Amino acid sequence: MAFVMRREFLHFSTAELEEAIDITARLNGIVTASGVRDGLVLVFPLHTTSAVYVSDCEPSLAIDTRAALARLVPGTASYLHDAHEVKQNAAAHIRAHLAGHHVVLPITKGSLDLGTFQTVYYLELDGRRDKEVLVKIMGTDEASGPGEGAGGGGT
Amino acid sequence: MAFVMRREFLHFSTAELEEAIDITARLNGIVTASGVRDGLVLVFPLHTTSAVYVSDCEPSLAIDTRAALARLVPGTASYLHDAHEVKQNAAAHIRAHLAGHHVVLPITKGSLDLGTFQTVYYLELDGRRDKEVLVKIMGTDEASGPGEGAGGGGT
Amino acid sequence: MAFVMRREFLHFSTAELEEAIDITARLNGIVTASGVRDGLVLVFPLHTTSAVYVSDCEPSLAIDTRAALARLVPGTASYLHDAHEVKQNAAAHIRAHLAGHHVVLPITKGSLDLGTFQTVYYLELDGRRDKEVLVKIMGTDEASGPGEGAGGGGT
């Protein structure tokens, strides 16, 4: 057993200003290629107008989530930040913050260790430009003991 | 000093649809049994209608927290997700998301390294069925240097 | 390459009841002093009326963020917690919870591995007293492979 760290990136450039993208399969590909069997992965946008979050696989929930964030942090409200910046994106920053910004996910047996319906989303809140998500993987390259054998897979 | 990873589970089946349960002692039991002296623990619900969060030990604050989430994400609003699913639980998903879903906690000297009044809660938002929380522990099995000796315990 | 863990603290005692403080440089100093080249750092307030979060470097956005939290969790609402405690700080607890409470940040080449404009803030929501943030660093003391070389630096 050896301790392993890997640093990879996901790149995005959305057509829309706001978009939620299922990144579960891409993340799993990165995790598998890393050789880490047992560990943690930090999925960390290098921007503060994007967020990564875990939710249900049903796609219309992502639309509901964006609508809820827009209702909680309206684009029409007045923000000091928007007096300082051309981009007028204070609401996007605060929505990304409330959406959690980054996640830490478990890795077991060389894959993301998620519940049956859990899906990882990249949430773009100020798109139409190049964005980058850091994927930092930390763990061991083979199973590390009795803890790995237990079952899982919630719903 | 050896590097250790452990994977354990907490199980829940609440009588109520919504409930906040203090899991600090159960988590500490898992941490102690793991043999990890110094590390991190990811406490990760395998569902997206539950959340784990850290708050004050005073129990009525958990009721205030649930009321705030219900006010921010009303069950009576219209959600696309609820047109696709029998369960009508879009609000529960979005509340769990805003509540943070999972936490990463410090482990020092074989126990959770929390402030004096900090309490870890499992927040069920769509209960009355079996739910599972993954507890992924990563660290070393004995103290790993001068960093461990410092004091702590905020209020 | 050796596996390293470090445990350090940041201390705060704000003049104002609410305040957002840029802690990026202080955190980077702790990370550099730790000797960890490649890893993760958990930045964890030992209180539940404070939060650490990542946002844009533009300072007025921190004021917008506090205003948004105050609008979402009004101090004037009625909270059960405030009937039990002299401090009347239920809103501060719930705001800190929604703000995310703690973060996990990547470390690469001995520094915080953040996007160009990313800034780490300590958000005090119930200040004018001593507060403490635990900084728990986990990683390796030299570069651990090909993953470290890749570029980064989002905007």
Keywords:
4 helices, alpha+beta, 155 residues, 3-stranded antiparallel beta sheet, homotrimer, 35% strand
> What distance separates the N and C termini of chain A?
32 Å
- SS class of chain A: alpha+beta
Largest beta sheet of chain A, briefly?
5 strands, antiparallel
> Unreliable stretches of chain A, pLDDT < 50, 5 or more residues?
147-155
**Multimeric state:** homotrimer
Q: Beta-sheet strand percentage of chain A? A: 25-35%
**What's the pLDDT, averaged over the residues of chain A?**
92
Q: Give the H and E element order of chain A.
A: EEHEEHHHEEEE
Rough outline of chain A: elongated
Q: Outline of this structure?
A:
The structure is a homotrimer. The first copy, chain A, is α+β, with helices and mostly antiparallel strands.
Structural description of this entry:
The structure is a homotrimer of 155-residue chains. Chain A contains 4 helices and 8 strands; from the N terminus they run ββαββαααββββ. Chain A has 155 residues and is an alpha+beta fold. Chain A is elongated. In chain A, 54% of the residues are buried. The C terminus of chain A is likely disordered.
